TrEMBL record:
<dbReference type="InterPro" id="IPR017972">
    <property type="entry name" value="Cyt_P450_CS"/>
</dbReference>
<dbReference type="Pfam" id="PF00067">
    <property type="entry name" value="p450"/>
</dbReference>
<protein>
    <submittedName>
        <fullName>Cytochrome P450</fullName>
        <ecNumber>1.14.-.-</ecNumber>
    </submittedName>
</protein>
<dbReference type="InterPro" id="IPR002397">
    <property type="entry name" value="Cyt_P450_B"/>
</dbReference>
<keyword id="KW-0503">Monooxygenase</keyword>
<keyword id="KW-0349">Heme</keyword>
<dbReference type="InterPro" id="IPR036396">
    <property type="entry name" value="Cyt_P450_sf"/>
</dbReference>
<dbReference type="InterPro" id="IPR001128">
    <property type="entry name" value="Cyt_P450"/>
</dbReference>
<keyword id="KW-0560">Oxidoreductase</keyword>
<comment type="similarity">
    <text>Belongs to the cytochrome P450 family.</text>
</comment>
<keyword id="KW-0408">Iron</keyword>
<keyword id="KW-0479">Metal-binding</keyword>
<dbReference type="GO" id="GO:0016491">
    <property type="term" value="F:oxidoreductase activity"/>
</dbReference>
Length: 411
C-alpha cells in the first residue's frame, strides 16, 4: 500500500534539511545510507528557502524518477525545488536551457546537438585532447613542483577543449571561468547570481551575433546553420544553449580531474595497479565517477501527475530531488560501495551522468578527457604525490558541483 504525502507528513520525523554535506571527500554524506535503508523516499526542507521536496535515494528509484514522463525538468513550474535564492520576478524572465526543457522542445534541441558528442565524434577529438593534455603536462614539468594541479591541468584542459569545440576565444577563459564558478555557488545572493548570469550572457550574446554573421568551424556556428532550416531556437535560445555548454563543459570535468587524481594518490595500490595495466583505465574512470558523483545537489524535478515511488505517492506539483550520489552508493547495486575498486564490474551502472532523456549529452567527451589526463599523469609523472596533507585541502562544500579548490602536488 502506498502512502500519500499527507499521510507521510503525519507519521514521519521532521524533514531532512537539504543539502547535506560530505564529512569525507571520498564518501557520500553519512545520512544517505540511513535514508536508503529506512526512508528511501523521504521529506526534505530546502535550506535555501525552507520549501518542501522529496529526496529519492535508492538506485532503482532514481532511475524511475529520471525516466518518468510524468516528472518535469521545467524550473518555472510551481513546486520545482530551487536551491538558489531566485525572486519570482527574476524567475519569470528566465529563458529555459535545454537542461530544463521537457519534450517536445527538449527533444528538438537535443537532436541538434547530439552529432557533436557521439562516440565517433569524440574519437576524432581524442588526438587534440591528448595534445592539449601533453602541452599542459610539459609546462607543469618544466615549471617544477610543487604546483596546483587545478590551475595547471584540471581546469585549463576541459576549458580549452570546450572553447575550441564551441568556438569561444580561450583568451577570455579567466572571465567565463569566474562567472561559471559563481553560477555553481549555493551561497550567492540573488543579486550576485543574477549579475553573473547577465555578465556571461552578455559576453555570449556578442559571440553568437558574431557567428551569425561570420560562421566558423565550431559547434555554435553549426547549430546556427542547422537552425536556419530547422527552426527550433531564437537568438536568445542559442545564447542560453552556449551558456549551458560552456559552463557544463568544463566545470564538472575540471572537478572530476582533480578529485580523481586525489583519490588515486590516496589509494597508491590502485594507482600502481592502473599504471601496470593501462587497459583498466576506462573502468577506473567509471569507478571514480561513481565514487564522487559530483552533482551533490541532486537532480531537481517536479511531478506533473501523481506518481508512486517505492511505497510513497508523490503528488502532482511536488518537488523531487533524485540524489545521484546516494544512488551510486546503493549497496544493492554496488557491493561495499564506499570502497574504491578500479576493477568493479558494476562501475558503469553509475548515475553520475544522470539517466533518461536528460542524461548528460557530453558524457563521451568527459570520459575521453578524464582518460587522457589520468593516463598521461600515470605514464609521465610516476612520482606524483600530494604536496599538502588532505586535511588542509579546501573542498567545495558551498557548490552545486563538488570538488577541491586547490590540489598542491609535486613529484
Amino acid at each position: 500500500m502506498t502512502q500519500s504525502a499527507d499521510a507521510v507528513a503525519g507519521t514521519e520525523a521532521p524533514p531532512v534539511q537539504f543539502p547535506l554535506r560530505r564529512t569525507c571527500p571520498f564518501a557520500e554524506p553519512p545520512e544517505y545510507a540511513g535514508l536508503r535503508a529506512d526512508a528511501p523516499v523521504s521529506r526534505a526542507a530546502l535550506k535555501v528557502n525552507g520549501k518542501p521536496a522529496w529526496l529519492v535515494t535508492r538506485h532503482e528509484h532514481v532511475r524511475q524518477v529520471l525516466g518518468d514522463s510524468r516528472v518535469s525538468s521545467n524550473l518555472k513550474l510551481p513546486g520545482y525545488p530551487h536551491q538558489f535564492h531566485i525572486p519570482e520576478e527574476l524567475l519569470a524572465q528566465v529563458r529555459l536551457m535545454m537542461l530544463n526543457m521537457d519534450a517536445p522542445e527538449h527533444t528538438a534541441h537535443r537532436r541538434m546537438l547530439i552529432p557533436e558528442f557521439t562516440a565517433r565524434r569524440v574519437r576524432e577529438l581524442r588526438p587534440r585532447i591528448q595534445q592539449i593534455v601533453d602541452e599542459h603536462v610539459d609546462a607543469m614539468l618544466a615549471a617544477g613542483g610543487p604546483v596546483d594541479l587545478v590551475t595547471a591541468l584540471a581546469l585549463p584542459v576541459p576549458s580549452l577543449v570546450i572553447c575550441e569545440l564551441l568556438g569561444v576565444p580561450y583568451e577570455d577563459h579567466a572571465r567565463f571561468e569566474e562567472w561559471s564558478a559563481a553560477l555553481m555557488n549555493h551561497d550567492l545572493s540573488p543579486q550576485e547570481y543574477g549579475a553573473a548570469v547577465q555578465a556571461l550572457d552578455t559576453y555570449l550574446d556578442q559571440l553568437v551575433t558574431l557567428k551569425e554573421n561570420e560562421p566558423g568551424d565550431d559547434l555554435i556556428s553549426r547549430f546556427l546553420e542547422k537552425n536556419r532550416t530547422e527552426r527550433v531556437a531564437d537568438h536568445t535560445d542559442v545564447v542560453t544553449m552556449a551558456r549551458l555548454m560552456l559552463v557544463g563543459g568544463h566545470e564538472t570535468t575540471a572537478n572530476m580531474i582533480a578529485l580523481g587524481v586525489l583519490a588515486l594518490l590516496e589509494h597508491p595500490e590502485q594507482m600502481a595497479e592502473l599504471r601496470a595495466d593501462p587497459a583498466l583505465l576506462p573502468n577506473a574512470v567509471e569507478e571514480l565517477l561513481r565514487v564522487f558523483s559530483i552533482s551533490d545537489s541532486g537532480t531537481a524535478r517536479v511531478a506533473v501527475a501523481d506518481i508512486e515511488v517505492g511505497d510513497v505517492t508523490i503528488r502532482a506539483g511536488e518537488g523531487i530531488l533524485a540524489l545521484n550520489n546516494a544512488a551510486d552508493h546503493d549497496e544493492s547495486v554496488f557491493p561495499d560501495p564506499d570502497t574504491l575498486d578500479i576493477r568493479r564490474k558494476e562501475a558503469r551502472s553509475h548515475l553520475a551522468f544522470g539517466y533518461g532523456v536528460h542524461q548528460c549529452i557530453g558524457a563521451n567527451l568527459a570520459r575521453a578527457e578524464l582518460e587522457a589526463v589520468y593516463g598521461t599523469l600515470l605514464r609521465r609523472v610516476p612520482g606524483l604525490r600530494l604536496a599538502a596533507p588532505v586535511e588542509e585541502l579546501r573542498f567545495k562544500d558551498d557548490a552545486m558541483v563538488y570538488g577541491v579548490y586547490e590540489l598542491p602536488v609535486t613529484w
